[in-house]
């Protein structure tokens, strides 16, 4: 039988790694989730800065993607808890190494922690005077564009966004060095940002930054809730489908932990 040493190794190790993340104490998980929300927010800010200082639309989108990828690099290298990456926890539930209730608890803690971190960073950036020199205009434009999308569009976009994000996370789990982690993250994240896809945690900082940059109208809270709900659901679907498809393709989905661990 043909073997893929790298791909097989990631598929073998992933369930145990992801189950371990889910069983971390909730207090520690929450702190790391707040940090991850802030880190992704830094990526959002970097993307907005890129958009505010370039004229060519195609170059803007690509540079924004490169800039935003710094956020996921921080998350993966520092080892914080990001909801979209944690959608991969569906895998250890499917292999029986993690209880579904624990997964849902971990998702809830991390999603809320990411929200707190995102809002905190947006507020600090606003207070620091960061929404000037075209950055505020870029924030308003990006936020408005997200709120104009239908629920179905956001859901489908969320699926695609998190397939790409989870590909970056999946490869980074196996990368042995920090430069290798950075390299494997760069491509998928650049694609998802350049394509304008919906990442629920990124939107937690982008939407409030847009509102803070334009106080002439009240925040569209109903639109924000719709966006976050359907982007979150799409992100879950994309991450879960990717994890199950990869491990099925590598023949490890039906194996128990004992079967996957060499004697």
From TrEMBL:
The chain crosses the membrane at residues 30-50, 62-83, 104-131, 151-170, 182-201, 221-246. It is a multi-pass membrane protein. Gene3D superfamilies: Glycerol uptake facilitator protein (1.20.1080.10). Keywords: Membrane, Transmembrane, Transmembrane helix. The keyword Cell cycle does not apply. The keyword Transcription does not apply. InterPro entries: Aquaporin-like, For/NO2_transpt, For/NO2_transpt_CS. It is found in: Membrane. Belongs to the FNT transporter (TC 1.A.16) family. This is Formate transporter.
């Amino acid at each position: 039988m043909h073997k893929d040493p790298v791909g097989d190794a990631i598929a073998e190790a992933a369930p145990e790694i992801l189950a371990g993340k889910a069983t971390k104490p909730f207090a520690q998980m929450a702190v790391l989730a707040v940090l991850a929300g802030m880190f992704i927010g830094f990526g959002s800010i970097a993307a907005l800065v890129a958009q505010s200082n370039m004229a060519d639309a195609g170059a803007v989108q690509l540079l924004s993607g490169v800039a935003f990828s710094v956020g996921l690099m921080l998350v993966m290298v520092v080892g914080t808890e990001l909801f979209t990456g944690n959608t991969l926890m569906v895998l250890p539930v499917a292999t029986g190494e993690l209880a579904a209730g624990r997964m849902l608890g971990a998702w809830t803690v991390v999603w809320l922690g990411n929200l707190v971190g995102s809002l905190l960073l947006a507020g600090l950036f606003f207070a620091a005077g960061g929404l000037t020199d075209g950055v505020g205009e870029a924030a308003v434009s990006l936020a408005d564009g997200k709120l104009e999308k239908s629920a179905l569009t956001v859901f489908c976009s969320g699926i695609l966004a998190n397939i790409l994000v989870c590909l970056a996370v999946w490869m980074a789990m196996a990368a042995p060095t920090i430069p290798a982690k950075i390299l494997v993250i760069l491509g998928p994240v650049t694609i998802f940002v350049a394509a304008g896809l919906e990442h629920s945690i990124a939107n937690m900082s982008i939407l409030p930054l847009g509102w803070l940059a334009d106080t002439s109208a009240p925040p569209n809270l109903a639109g924000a809730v719709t966006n976050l709900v359907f982007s979150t659901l799409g992100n879950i679907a994309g991450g879960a489908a990717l994890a199950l498809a990869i491990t099925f393709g590598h023949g490890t989905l039906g194996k128990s932990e004992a079967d996957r661990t060499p004697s």
